[in-house]
Amino acid sequence: MSLVLVANRAPIRPTPDGWAPSLGGLASALLPVLEDRGGAWVAMREPDEDTPLTQTYPPDAPAFTVRRVPLDAPEYQAFYQGMANRVLWPLAHYLVEHVEPDRTFREAYRAVNRRFAHAALDVAREAGETAPTFWVQDYHMMLVPETLRAGMPDARIGFFWHVPWPASEVFRILPSARDLLRGMLGSDLIGFHTEGYAENFRESARDLLGAEIDGETVVLDGRRCRAESHPIGIDVARFEGLALAPDAAALADELRHDFGGVQIVLGVDRLDYTKGLLLRMEAYERFLERYPERHGEVTFVQIATPSRTGVPAYDRLKRDMDEAAGRINGQFARGAWTPLHYRYQSFDQPELAAFYQAADVAFVTPLRDGMNLVAHEFAAVSGARADAGGRPGALVLSELTGAADYLDGALLVNPYDADGLARSLADALDLPEPDRRARLARTQAAVRDLDVHAWARRFLESLDEG
Protein backbone atom coordinates (compact mmCIF):
# COMPACT_ATOMS: atom_id res chain seq x y z
CA MET A 1 0.00 0.00 0.00
CA SER A 2 1.48 3.35 -0.99
CA LEU A 3 1.92 6.23 1.45
CA VAL A 4 0.80 9.83 0.91
CA LEU A 5 2.41 12.30 3.30
CA VAL A 6 0.89 15.75 3.85
CA ALA A 7 3.16 18.35 5.45
CA ASN A 8 3.78 22.06 5.38
CA ARG A 9 7.34 21.75 4.05
CA ALA A 10 8.61 19.71 1.09
CA PRO A 11 11.17 16.96 1.79
CA ILE A 12 13.60 18.09 -0.93
CA ARG A 13 15.32 21.38 -1.73
CA PRO A 14 17.09 22.79 -4.77
CA THR A 15 20.90 22.94 -4.68
CA PRO A 16 23.49 24.09 -7.22
CA ASP A 17 23.91 20.42 -8.19
CA GLY A 18 20.20 19.59 -8.50
CA TRP A 19 18.00 18.38 -5.67
CA ALA A 20 18.84 17.14 -2.18
CA PRO A 21 16.89 16.07 0.92
CA SER A 22 15.73 18.92 3.12
CA LEU A 23 17.58 19.45 6.37
CA GLY A 24 15.77 18.30 9.48
CA GLY A 25 14.55 15.18 11.18
CA LEU A 26 11.20 14.76 9.42
CA ALA A 27 12.68 14.44 5.93
CA SER A 28 15.46 12.24 7.31
CA ALA A 29 12.94 9.86 8.85
CA LEU A 30 10.31 9.73 6.15
CA LEU A 31 12.20 9.86 2.86
CA PRO A 32 13.46 6.26 3.29
CA VAL A 33 9.91 5.15 4.10
CA LEU A 34 8.55 6.78 0.93
CA GLU A 35 11.38 5.37 -1.18
CA ASP A 36 10.54 1.90 0.16
CA ARG A 37 6.75 2.06 -0.03
CA GLY A 38 6.24 4.49 -2.90
CA GLY A 39 3.64 7.24 -2.93
CA ALA A 40 3.75 11.01 -2.65
CA TRP A 41 4.60 13.97 -0.42
CA VAL A 42 2.18 16.90 -0.60
CA ALA A 43 3.66 20.21 0.55
CA MET A 44 3.29 23.97 0.27
CA ARG A 45 4.86 26.10 -2.43
CA GLU A 46 5.47 29.57 -1.02
CA PRO A 47 4.66 32.66 -3.08
CA ASP A 48 8.30 33.39 -3.93
CA GLU A 49 9.28 29.80 -4.77
CA ASP A 50 10.11 28.73 -8.30
CA THR A 51 9.80 24.98 -7.90
CA PRO A 52 7.82 22.42 -9.93
CA LEU A 53 4.27 21.74 -8.87
CA THR A 54 4.88 18.04 -9.51
CA GLN A 55 8.18 16.19 -9.67
CA THR A 56 9.49 12.69 -9.06
CA TYR A 57 12.36 11.89 -6.72
CA PRO A 58 15.12 10.73 -6.73
CA PRO A 59 15.76 11.98 -10.27
CA ASP A 60 17.83 8.98 -11.35
CA ALA A 61 15.46 6.32 -9.95
CA PRO A 62 12.06 7.85 -9.12
CA ALA A 63 10.46 6.28 -6.07
CA PHE A 64 7.78 8.82 -5.16
CA THR A 65 6.19 12.08 -6.24
CA VAL A 66 6.39 15.52 -4.68
CA ARG A 67 3.18 17.49 -5.23
CA ARG A 68 3.23 21.16 -4.22
CA VAL A 69 0.20 23.28 -3.39
CA PRO A 70 0.91 26.85 -4.56
CA LEU A 71 -0.09 29.67 -2.23
CA ASP A 72 -0.34 33.30 -3.23
CA ALA A 73 0.93 36.00 -0.87
CA PRO A 74 -2.40 36.77 0.88
CA GLU A 75 -3.09 33.05 1.43
CA TYR A 76 0.39 32.48 2.81
CA GLN A 77 0.12 35.44 5.18
CA ALA A 78 -3.27 34.41 6.55
CA PHE A 79 -2.77 30.62 6.64
CA TYR A 80 0.89 30.31 7.64
CA GLN A 81 1.97 33.58 9.22
CA GLY A 82 -1.53 34.13 10.61
CA MET A 83 -3.43 31.06 11.79
CA ALA A 84 -0.45 28.73 12.16
CA ASN A 85 2.13 31.07 13.67
CA ARG A 86 0.05 33.71 15.45
CA VAL A 87 -2.80 31.55 16.75
CA LEU A 88 -2.08 27.83 16.94
CA TRP A 89 1.64 28.02 17.79
CA PRO A 90 1.34 30.27 20.87
CA LEU A 91 -1.81 28.53 22.07
CA ALA A 92 -0.19 25.09 21.93
CA HIS A 93 2.66 26.45 24.05
CA TYR A 94 0.31 28.03 26.66
CA LEU A 95 1.44 31.54 25.70
CA VAL A 96 -2.06 32.86 25.23
CA GLU A 97 -0.96 36.49 25.42
CA HIS A 98 0.53 36.02 21.94
CA VAL A 99 -2.64 34.59 20.38
CA GLU A 100 -4.17 36.89 17.74
CA PRO A 101 -7.58 35.46 16.73
CA ASP A 102 -8.72 36.77 13.36
CA ARG A 103 -11.64 35.51 11.31
CA THR A 104 -9.72 35.93 8.06
CA PHE A 105 -7.03 33.64 9.46
CA ARG A 106 -9.61 30.91 10.11
CA GLU A 107 -11.18 31.22 6.68
CA ALA A 108 -7.82 31.04 4.92
CA TYR A 109 -6.74 28.09 7.07
CA ARG A 110 -9.86 26.12 6.17
CA ALA A 111 -9.50 26.89 2.46
CA VAL A 112 -5.81 25.97 2.33
CA ASN A 113 -6.37 22.76 4.31
CA ARG A 114 -9.07 21.78 1.84
CA ARG A 115 -6.66 22.33 -1.06
CA PHE A 116 -3.99 20.19 0.61
CA ALA A 117 -6.49 17.40 1.19
CA HIS A 118 -7.74 17.47 -2.40
CA ALA A 119 -4.17 17.43 -3.70
CA ALA A 120 -3.48 14.35 -1.57
CA LEU A 121 -6.66 12.66 -2.81
CA ASP A 122 -5.72 13.47 -6.41
CA VAL A 123 -2.28 11.85 -6.21
CA ALA A 124 -3.80 8.76 -4.59
CA ARG A 125 -6.42 8.46 -7.33
CA GLU A 126 -3.86 9.07 -10.07
CA ALA A 127 -1.92 6.10 -8.68
CA GLY A 128 -5.07 3.96 -8.80
CA GLU A 129 -5.34 3.72 -5.03
CA THR A 130 -8.73 3.22 -3.41
CA ALA A 131 -7.46 2.68 0.15
CA PRO A 132 -4.07 4.40 0.52
CA THR A 133 -2.36 5.34 3.75
CA PHE A 134 -2.27 9.08 4.45
CA TRP A 135 0.03 10.53 7.07
CA VAL A 136 -0.69 14.19 7.94
CA GLN A 137 1.85 16.26 9.86
CA ASP A 138 1.30 18.90 12.53
CA TYR A 139 -0.77 21.93 13.45
CA HIS A 140 -0.76 23.43 9.97
CA MET A 141 -3.06 20.63 8.74
CA MET A 142 -5.68 20.03 11.43
CA LEU A 143 -8.66 20.00 9.05
CA VAL A 144 -7.08 17.77 6.40
CA PRO A 145 -8.07 14.35 7.87
CA GLU A 146 -11.80 15.15 7.82
CA THR A 147 -11.70 16.01 4.10
CA LEU A 148 -9.57 12.95 3.32
CA ARG A 149 -12.08 10.74 5.13
CA ALA A 150 -14.97 12.20 3.14
CA GLY A 151 -13.09 11.62 -0.12
CA MET A 152 -11.78 8.11 0.64
CA PRO A 153 -13.72 6.49 3.47
CA ASP A 154 -11.62 3.30 3.39
CA ALA A 155 -8.23 5.01 3.63
CA ARG A 156 -5.95 4.60 6.63
CA ILE A 157 -5.31 8.10 8.00
CA GLY A 158 -2.61 8.96 10.52
CA PHE A 159 -1.85 12.35 12.02
CA PHE A 160 1.18 13.43 14.03
CA TRP A 161 1.08 16.46 16.32
CA HIS A 162 4.66 17.75 16.80
CA VAL A 163 4.06 20.43 19.47
CA PRO A 164 2.46 20.31 22.94
CA TRP A 165 -1.28 19.74 23.13
CA PRO A 166 -2.53 22.13 25.82
CA ALA A 167 -5.03 21.42 28.56
CA SER A 168 -8.69 21.44 27.49
CA GLU A 169 -9.45 24.77 29.20
CA VAL A 170 -6.64 26.40 27.19
CA PHE A 171 -7.48 24.83 23.84
CA ARG A 172 -11.13 25.85 24.10
CA ILE A 173 -10.05 29.52 23.95
CA LEU A 174 -10.00 29.17 20.16
CA PRO A 175 -13.29 30.15 18.48
CA SER A 176 -12.73 27.30 16.01
CA ALA A 177 -11.66 24.72 18.62
CA ARG A 178 -14.52 22.30 17.94
CA ASP A 179 -14.10 22.44 14.18
CA LEU A 180 -10.38 21.76 14.51
CA LEU A 181 -10.98 18.77 16.77
CA ARG A 182 -13.51 17.32 14.36
CA GLY A 183 -11.03 17.81 11.54
CA MET A 184 -8.34 15.82 13.32
CA LEU A 185 -10.77 13.08 14.37
CA GLY A 186 -11.12 12.08 10.74
CA SER A 187 -7.90 10.16 11.48
CA ASP A 188 -7.56 6.56 12.60
CA LEU A 189 -4.49 7.31 14.71
CA ILE A 190 -3.13 10.57 16.16
CA GLY A 191 0.36 10.55 17.59
CA PHE A 192 1.80 12.84 20.28
CA HIS A 193 5.24 13.03 21.88
CA THR A 194 4.01 12.26 25.40
CA GLU A 195 1.13 10.52 27.08
CA GLY A 196 0.30 13.83 28.79
CA TYR A 197 -0.31 15.53 25.45
CA ALA A 198 -2.42 12.57 24.27
CA GLU A 199 -4.48 12.72 27.46
CA ASN A 200 -5.02 16.46 27.00
CA PHE A 201 -6.29 15.81 23.47
CA ARG A 202 -8.69 13.10 24.62
CA GLU A 203 -10.01 15.40 27.34
CA SER A 204 -10.50 18.19 24.79
CA ALA A 205 -12.54 15.87 22.58
CA ARG A 206 -14.62 14.79 25.57
CA ASP A 207 -15.17 18.28 26.98
CA LEU A 208 -15.78 20.16 23.73
CA LEU A 209 -17.43 17.55 21.50
CA GLY A 210 -19.00 15.17 24.01
CA ALA A 211 -16.87 12.31 22.68
CA GLU A 212 -16.67 9.04 24.56
CA ILE A 213 -13.20 8.01 25.76
CA ASP A 214 -12.39 4.30 25.77
CA GLY A 215 -8.80 3.94 26.99
CA GLU A 216 -6.67 5.58 24.30
CA THR A 217 -9.59 5.70 21.86
CA VAL A 218 -11.87 8.65 21.15
CA VAL A 219 -15.32 7.65 19.91
CA LEU A 220 -17.35 10.32 18.12
CA ASP A 221 -20.43 9.77 15.95
CA GLY A 222 -19.67 6.06 15.80
CA ARG A 223 -16.09 6.52 14.54
CA ARG A 224 -13.07 5.47 16.58
CA CYS A 225 -9.76 7.31 16.62
CA ARG A 226 -6.80 6.34 18.79
CA ALA A 227 -4.66 9.04 20.45
CA GLU A 228 -1.30 7.54 21.43
CA SER A 229 2.15 8.67 22.51
CA HIS A 230 4.84 8.13 19.86
CA PRO A 231 7.90 10.14 20.96
CA ILE A 232 10.14 11.34 18.15
CA GLY A 233 13.91 11.53 18.20
CA ILE A 234 16.80 12.39 15.89
CA ASP A 235 18.85 10.57 13.27
CA VAL A 236 21.21 9.24 15.94
CA ALA A 237 23.70 7.62 13.57
CA ARG A 238 24.12 10.90 11.68
CA PHE A 239 24.90 12.94 14.80
CA GLU A 240 27.18 10.31 16.28
CA GLY A 241 28.96 10.25 12.92
CA LEU A 242 29.41 14.03 13.04
CA ALA A 243 30.97 13.68 16.48
CA LEU A 244 33.48 11.10 15.23
CA ALA A 245 34.35 12.74 11.91
CA PRO A 246 38.12 13.08 11.36
CA ASP A 247 38.25 16.84 11.96
CA ALA A 248 35.45 17.05 14.58
CA ALA A 249 37.66 17.11 17.67
CA ALA A 250 39.96 19.70 16.10
CA LEU A 251 37.00 21.99 15.32
CA ALA A 252 35.76 21.70 18.91
CA ASP A 253 39.25 22.48 20.26
CA GLU A 254 39.42 25.51 17.98
CA LEU A 255 36.12 26.79 19.36
CA ARG A 256 37.30 26.33 22.94
CA HIS A 257 40.44 28.29 22.10
CA ASP A 258 38.41 31.05 20.43
CA PHE A 259 36.24 31.40 23.55
CA GLY A 260 39.25 31.77 25.80
CA GLY A 261 39.76 28.22 27.06
CA VAL A 262 37.11 28.64 29.79
CA GLN A 263 34.14 26.42 30.60
CA ILE A 264 31.44 26.80 27.96
CA VAL A 265 27.70 26.92 28.59
CA LEU A 266 25.78 26.48 25.31
CA GLY A 267 22.27 27.42 24.21
CA VAL A 268 21.00 26.54 20.72
CA ASP A 269 17.51 27.66 19.71
CA ARG A 270 15.41 29.29 17.07
CA LEU A 271 14.75 32.90 18.05
CA ASP A 272 11.27 32.15 19.41
CA TYR A 273 9.41 33.37 22.47
CA THR A 274 8.62 29.77 23.47
CA LYS A 275 12.30 29.02 24.03
CA GLY A 276 12.64 31.09 27.21
CA LEU A 277 15.63 33.00 25.87
CA LEU A 278 15.17 36.21 27.87
CA LEU A 279 14.60 34.30 31.11
CA ARG A 280 17.71 32.24 30.33
CA MET A 281 19.69 35.46 29.88
CA GLU A 282 18.34 36.71 33.21
CA ALA A 283 19.32 33.41 34.85
CA TYR A 284 22.87 33.68 33.53
CA GLU A 285 23.01 37.25 34.76
CA ARG A 286 21.88 36.00 38.19
CA PHE A 287 24.58 33.31 38.01
CA LEU A 288 27.25 35.95 37.41
CA GLU A 289 25.92 38.02 40.32
CA ARG A 290 25.81 35.09 42.76
CA TYR A 291 29.13 33.48 41.81
CA PRO A 292 31.66 36.28 41.28
CA GLU A 293 34.49 33.79 41.85
CA ARG A 294 33.59 32.26 38.47
CA HIS A 295 34.16 35.44 36.53
CA GLY A 296 36.78 34.75 33.91
CA GLU A 297 36.18 30.98 34.17
CA VAL A 298 32.86 30.53 32.31
CA THR A 299 31.34 31.91 29.12
CA PHE A 300 27.80 31.49 27.81
CA VAL A 301 27.44 30.95 24.06
CA GLN A 302 23.85 31.52 22.90
CA ILE A 303 23.09 30.63 19.28
CA ALA A 304 19.75 32.05 18.14
CA THR A 305 18.73 31.04 14.63
CA PRO A 306 16.68 33.74 12.85
CA SER A 307 13.01 32.77 12.74
CA ARG A 308 9.76 34.30 11.44
CA THR A 309 11.27 37.70 10.75
CA GLY A 310 8.59 40.26 10.04
CA VAL A 311 6.23 38.90 12.72
CA PRO A 312 5.98 41.68 15.35
CA ALA A 313 6.43 39.42 18.41
CA TYR A 314 9.62 37.96 16.97
CA ASP A 315 11.00 41.33 15.96
CA ARG A 316 10.44 42.59 19.53
CA LEU A 317 12.19 39.52 20.93
CA LYS A 318 15.19 40.18 18.67
CA ARG A 319 15.48 43.73 20.04
CA ASP A 320 15.13 42.54 23.63
CA MET A 321 17.82 39.88 23.14
CA ASP A 322 20.23 42.41 21.67
CA GLU A 323 19.66 44.69 24.66
CA ALA A 324 20.10 41.85 27.19
CA ALA A 325 23.35 40.71 25.60
CA GLY A 326 24.71 44.25 25.61
CA ARG A 327 23.70 44.79 29.24
CA ILE A 328 25.33 41.58 30.51
CA ASN A 329 28.60 42.13 28.68
CA GLY A 330 28.62 45.81 29.60
CA GLN A 331 28.24 45.00 33.29
CA PHE A 332 30.50 41.96 33.68
CA ALA A 333 33.16 41.87 30.95
CA ARG A 334 36.71 42.29 32.24
CA GLY A 335 39.94 42.40 30.23
CA ALA A 336 40.00 39.61 27.63
CA TRP A 337 37.05 37.77 29.19
CA THR A 338 33.66 38.05 27.47
CA PRO A 339 30.93 36.50 29.66
CA LEU A 340 28.37 36.16 26.84
CA HIS A 341 28.75 35.39 23.16
CA TYR A 342 25.42 35.93 21.41
CA ARG A 343 25.27 34.59 17.84
CA TYR A 344 22.17 35.60 15.89
CA GLN A 345 22.86 33.36 12.89
CA SER A 346 22.33 29.90 11.43
CA PHE A 347 24.84 27.06 11.61
CA ASP A 348 24.76 23.78 9.71
CA GLN A 349 24.75 20.43 11.49
CA PRO A 350 28.53 19.80 11.34
CA GLU A 351 29.12 23.26 12.81
CA LEU A 352 26.55 22.67 15.57
CA ALA A 353 28.19 19.32 16.34
CA ALA A 354 31.45 21.17 16.98
CA PHE A 355 29.67 23.51 19.41
CA TYR A 356 28.07 20.52 21.17
CA GLN A 357 31.49 18.89 21.61
CA ALA A 358 33.09 22.10 22.86
CA ALA A 359 30.39 22.69 25.47
CA ASP A 360 30.71 21.70 29.12
CA VAL A 361 26.99 22.31 29.71
CA ALA A 362 23.99 22.50 27.35
CA PHE A 363 21.48 25.00 28.75
CA VAL A 364 18.13 23.93 27.24
CA THR A 365 15.33 25.83 28.99
CA PRO A 366 12.23 26.36 26.79
CA LEU A 367 9.05 27.60 28.44
CA ARG A 368 7.26 24.79 26.59
CA ASP A 369 8.40 22.41 23.88
CA GLY A 370 6.77 19.43 22.21
CA MET A 371 9.98 17.43 22.49
CA ASN A 372 13.15 19.56 21.98
CA LEU A 373 15.62 17.83 19.70
CA VAL A 374 18.55 20.08 20.61
CA ALA A 375 18.74 18.10 23.85
CA HIS A 376 18.87 14.86 21.84
CA GLU A 377 21.52 16.22 19.47
CA PHE A 378 23.74 17.38 22.32
CA ALA A 379 23.50 14.01 24.10
CA ALA A 380 24.24 12.07 20.91
CA VAL A 381 27.28 14.17 19.98
CA SER A 382 28.70 14.63 23.48
CA GLY A 383 28.04 10.99 24.31
CA ALA A 384 29.77 9.68 21.18
CA ARG A 385 32.79 11.89 21.85
CA ALA A 386 32.89 10.76 25.51
CA ASP A 387 32.77 7.11 24.38
CA ALA A 388 35.82 7.86 22.26
CA GLY A 389 37.71 9.22 25.26
CA GLY A 390 36.62 12.87 25.13
CA ARG A 391 35.16 15.09 27.81
CA PRO A 392 31.50 14.38 28.70
CA GLY A 393 29.04 17.26 28.78
CA ALA A 394 26.13 17.88 31.15
CA LEU A 395 22.54 18.67 30.12
CA VAL A 396 20.40 21.20 32.00
CA LEU A 397 16.86 20.69 30.68
CA SER A 398 13.51 22.39 31.18
CA GLU A 399 10.99 20.14 32.88
CA LEU A 400 8.34 21.66 30.58
CA THR A 401 9.67 19.90 27.48
CA GLY A 402 8.57 16.55 26.13
CA ALA A 403 12.22 15.48 26.29
CA ALA A 404 12.11 15.76 30.09
CA ASP A 405 9.80 12.72 30.15
CA TYR A 406 12.45 10.56 28.50
CA LEU A 407 16.01 11.85 28.91
CA ASP A 408 17.11 10.29 32.18
CA GLY A 409 20.37 11.84 33.33
CA ALA A 410 19.48 15.44 32.54
CA LEU A 411 19.34 18.00 35.36
CA LEU A 412 15.70 19.14 35.22
CA VAL A 413 14.82 22.76 35.94
CA ASN A 414 11.84 25.11 36.00
CA PRO A 415 12.52 27.61 33.16
CA TYR A 416 10.63 30.39 34.98
CA ASP A 417 12.85 30.19 38.10
CA ALA A 418 15.89 32.39 37.43
CA ASP A 419 17.47 31.66 40.82
CA GLY A 420 16.92 27.93 40.40
CA LEU A 421 18.41 28.04 36.90
CA ALA A 422 21.49 29.85 38.22
CA ARG A 423 21.96 27.21 40.96
CA SER A 424 21.47 24.33 38.52
CA LEU A 425 23.96 25.86 36.12
CA ALA A 426 26.55 26.05 38.89
CA ASP A 427 25.77 22.43 39.87
CA ALA A 428 26.17 21.27 36.27
CA LEU A 429 29.52 23.03 35.89
CA ASP A 430 30.74 21.44 39.14
CA LEU A 431 29.62 17.86 38.41
CA PRO A 432 32.50 15.45 39.05
CA GLU A 433 33.52 13.67 35.86
CA PRO A 434 32.33 10.17 36.94
CA ASP A 435 28.87 11.58 37.75
CA ARG A 436 28.83 13.61 34.53
CA ARG A 437 29.83 10.56 32.49
CA ALA A 438 27.19 8.33 34.14
CA ARG A 439 24.43 10.88 33.59
CA LEU A 440 25.40 11.39 29.97
CA ALA A 441 25.44 7.64 29.34
CA ARG A 442 21.85 7.35 30.60
CA THR A 443 20.73 10.27 28.44
CA GLN A 444 22.56 8.86 25.42
CA ALA A 445 20.82 5.50 25.84
CA ALA A 446 17.41 7.18 25.91
CA VAL A 447 18.23 9.18 22.77
CA ARG A 448 19.18 5.98 20.94
CA ASP A 449 15.87 4.37 21.94
CA LEU A 450 13.95 7.33 20.46
CA ASP A 451 15.77 7.31 17.10
CA VAL A 452 13.67 9.03 14.43
CA HIS A 453 13.71 6.04 12.09
CA ALA A 454 12.32 3.82 14.87
CA TRP A 455 9.68 6.50 15.53
CA ALA A 456 8.44 6.39 11.91
CA ARG A 457 8.42 2.60 11.87
CA ARG A 458 6.51 2.30 15.16
CA PHE A 459 3.90 4.87 14.16
CA LEU A 460 3.17 3.30 10.76
CA GLU A 461 3.05 -0.18 12.27
CA SER A 462 0.47 1.03 14.79
CA LEU A 463 -1.52 2.73 12.02
CA ASP A 464 -1.44 -0.37 9.79
CA GLU A 465 -2.48 -2.64 12.65
CA GLY A 466 -5.37 -0.25 13.40
Word description of this protein:
By secondary structure, the chain is an alpha/beta fold. It has two domains: 3-233 and 452-465, Glycogen Phosphorylase B (Rossmann fold), CATH 3.40.50.2000; 236-449, Glycogen Phosphorylase B (Rossmann fold, 3-Layer(aba) Sandwich), CATH 3.40.50. 46% of the residues lie in helices and 19% in strands. Helix 2 crosses helix 3 (103-126), helix 8 packs across helix 13 and helix 10 (277-290) packs parallel to helix 11 (312-332). The longest helix has 24 residues, at 103-126. It is globular.
Features:
single chain; 466 residues; alpha/beta; Rossmann fold; 2 domains; 10-stranded mixed sheet; 6-stranded parallel sheet
Short recap of the structure:
By secondary structure, the chain is α/β, with parallel strands linked by helices. It has 16 helices and 18 strands. It has helices spanning 25-37, 73-92, 103-126, 144-151, 168-171, 177-184, 195-209, 236-243, 248-258, 277-290, 312-332, 349-358, 373-387, 418-430, 433-449, 452-465; strands at 3-6, 12-15, 18-21, 39-45, 54-57, 64-70, 133-137, 156-160, 189-192, 212-214, 217-220, 223-229, 263-270, 298-305, 340-343, 361-364, 394-398, 411-413.
Classify the beta-strand content into a percent band.
15-25%
Assign the CATH architecture of the largest domain: 3-Layer(aba) Sandwich
| Largest beta-sheet characterization | 10 strands, mixed
According to DSSP, the number of beta strands is 18
Distance between the termini: 14 Å
Shape: globular
What is the CATH H-level superfamily of the largest domain? Glycogen Phosphorylase B
Side by side, the strands of the main sheet go 5-6-4-1-7-8-9-12-11-10
Q: What would the CATH topology of the largest domain be? A: Rossmann fold
Give the proportion of residues in helices.
40-55%
- Text of the CATH class of the largest domain: Alpha Beta
Specify the number of helices. 16
Write down the overall mean pLDDT: 95
Structural class: alpha/beta
